[in-house]
């Protein structure tokens, strides 16, 4: 068993807007794509029909919702201000909103807008119909190499976009990924992300099983931490658990520092090579995102989306 899994009150409402996007028909990164747009307005909770719960979090819950006027389906993340203040994560929530509202990529969950009242903050998110990838992975135990390679290619493209926009995610893991109706990966949680124009940071964050050596040792790091996390993620896709998972935190730390990776027999030599090229102690030695897409294992196995 792993030990590792782990705004001031105001009545003013922020302006926000929605774009009606059919995920089956529209590529979000097509610059000239015409989309039906809901006029700018001040949203309140009364503008939405609230449906079934989609998930629960430390600071609130996510619900299926429908904007009444347009009938557009969204996921509405409702956060408790009191819990946010109690846990002193106002800056983290604000940063998540600022980053995610500006990102536009087919493999990044859209945040269409947000609003708030005296007690709650409401985030208006794209609805990913197939839900949490973590639950899907648990159901399958582990993915075949075609599925894993396809997801890794989608994530590589998403991170090329993020890093080009000076965004480091720092906390990629199955729990922070969703699946769309068409089965595409959606990066869904930017709570630990940072917009770092200098691309140099020193804060320890993220999930223990996924921590890179430089973050573990409190060294300055950059966007290459995401490359390490992608290597860990690929291993978990193919094996069903992270490579350094241990009974104790100290054992996990030791395995990370040694990069003590053991592969089950069913993992191919190509997949092993792909993972080990990302799990390099020296960040400069890690395979780049472009090289990930050109790696023979990806080229052989990844399915290309029809756009």
Automatic annotation (TrEMBL):
Active site positions: 171
Any Pfam family: Pkinase
Key words of the record: ATP-binding, Kinase, Nucleotide-binding, Serine/threonine-protein kinase, Transferase
Glycyl lysine isopeptide (Lys-Gly) (interchain with G-Cter in SUMO2) cross-link site: 173
Keyword Kinase: yes
Catalyzed reactions per annotation: L-threonyl-[protein] + ATP = O-phospho-L-threonyl-[protein] + ADP + H(+); L-seryl-[protein] + ATP = O-phospho-L-seryl-[protein] + ADP + H(+)
Any one GO cellular component localisation term in the record: midbody
Family annotation (Gene3D superfamilies): Phosphorylase Kinase, domain 1, Transferase(Phosphotransferase) domain 1
Highest rank taxon of the organism: Eukaryota
An example Gene Ontology molecular-function term: protein serine/threonine kinase activity
PROSITE patterns: PROTEIN_KINASE_ATP (PS00107), PROTEIN_KINASE_DOM (PS50011), PROTEIN_KINASE_ST (PS00108)
Subcellular location as annotated: Midbody
Binding annotation for ATP: 58, 77, 126-128, 175-176, 189
CDD domains noted in UniProt: STKc_Aurora
GO BP annotation list: chromatin organization; chromosome condensation; cytokinetic process; mitotic sister chromatid segregation
E.C. no: 2.7.11.1
UniProt xrefs under InterPro entries: Aur-like, Kinase-like_dom_sf, Prot_kinase_dom, Protein_kinase_ATP_BS, Ser/Thr_kinase_AS
SMART domains: S_TKc (SM00220)
Positions of the Protein kinase domain: 48-298
Membership in a protein family: Belongs to the protein kinase superfamily. Ser/Thr protein kinase family. Aurora subfamily.
Entry's transmembrane regions: none
Protein name: Aurora kinase
């Amino acid at each position: 068993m792993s030990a590792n899994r782990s705004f001031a009150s105001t009545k003013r409402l922020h302006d926000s807007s929605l774009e009606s996007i059919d995920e089956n028909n529209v590529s979000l990164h097509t610059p000239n794509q015409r989309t039906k747009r809901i006029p700018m307005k001040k949203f309140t909770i009364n503008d939405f029909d609230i449906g079934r719960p989609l998930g629960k979090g430390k600071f609130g819950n996510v619900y299926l919702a429908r904007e009444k006027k347009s009938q557009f389906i969204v996921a509405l993340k409702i956060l408790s201000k009191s819990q946010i203040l109690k846990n002193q994560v106002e800056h983290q929530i604000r940063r998540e909103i600022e980053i995610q509202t500006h990102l536009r990529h087919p493999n990044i969950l859209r945040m269409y807008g947000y609003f708030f009242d005296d007690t709650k903050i409401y985030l208006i998110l794209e609805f990913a119909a197939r839900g949490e990838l973590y639950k899907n992975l648990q159901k399958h135990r582990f993915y075949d190499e075609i599925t894993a390679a396809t997801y890794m290619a989608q994530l590589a493209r998403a991170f090329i976009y993020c890093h080009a926009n000076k965004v480091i995610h720092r906390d990629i893991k199955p729990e922070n990924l969703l699946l769309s109706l068409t089965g595409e990966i959606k990066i869904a949680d930017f709570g630990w992300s940072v917009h770092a124009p200098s691309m140099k940071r020193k804060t320890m964050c993220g999930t223990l099983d996924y921590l890179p050596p430089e973050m573990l040792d409190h060294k300055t790091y950059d966007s290459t931490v995401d490359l390490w996390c992608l290597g860990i993620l690929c291993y978990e896709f193919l094996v069903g658990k992270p490579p350094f998972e241990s009974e104790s935190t100290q054992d996990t730390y030791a395995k990370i520092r040694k990069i003590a990776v053991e592969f089950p027999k069913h993992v191919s030599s190509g997949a092993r090579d792909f993972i080990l090229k990302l799990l390099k102690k020296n960040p400069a030695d890690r395979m780049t995102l472009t090289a990930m897409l050109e790696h023979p294992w990806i080229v052989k196995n990844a399915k290309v989306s029809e756009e």
